[in-house]
Amino acid sequence: xLVHAGVADHRMWDAIVxxxxxxxxxxxxxxxxxxxxxxxxxxxxxxxxxxxxxxxxGHDRVRLVGASxxxxxxxDFTLTHPxxxxxxxxxxxxxPGYDWSAEMIAYDAAETAxxxxxxxxxxxxxxxxxxxRGPDRTWDDVPAGLADRLREPLRTSLMNQAVVDMYSKGASxxxxxxxxxxxxxxxxxxxxxDFQDIGRRYAAEIPDATLVEFATxxxxxxxxxxxxxxxxxxxxxxx
Length: 239
Fold this sequence. Notes:
Number of domains: 1
Order of helices and strands: EHEHEHEHHHEHEHH
CATH superfamily: Alpha/Beta hydrolase fold, catalytic domain
């Protein structure tokens, strides 16, 4: 089960699904307000949505892979429904209550200012700079075509961001040290320093966790390093 990042949709996994599908049934979906899923009209929980989806599809236990915000959804689901998870892979997940750096605060302020005046183009550009390009490379270093692939999903997420934030119950405050399944934590070496630090914190606090660093990836590992990620996941899932 693949859970996408908060600036993408199910298509972020396009490049790794074929490799995983050789040995596994692969499911991916759009969170509420992303991709082809309608925005919420009342209070909801991402973990409850995931449980209902698994019930509907008839899957009792799954191997969860979550990217960025999808990683936190996957971690929360594992804490809430431990009997339904065989293993967990977290790719650059956030940490609730993290003390963000000045760089992250400035990014958030720039996005907020753009959305406040309805300037979606600027908000998209701010997010592409932060999450796809990252702080340590130029656009010439980013694989060709990735910005164009991400622009539409990102625009949809930004259009629905306010209503999703209004109704989502958000991340839980559960202790990740209680996670008892095998865990892979992935970090991009070109990601924002905050998320590299957070990845190491997850790996340190979850008892059966392995940290994997992707040298050519920024925040969105599945887009930047799909071959390397697919290989790491296949090895991990074979445990």
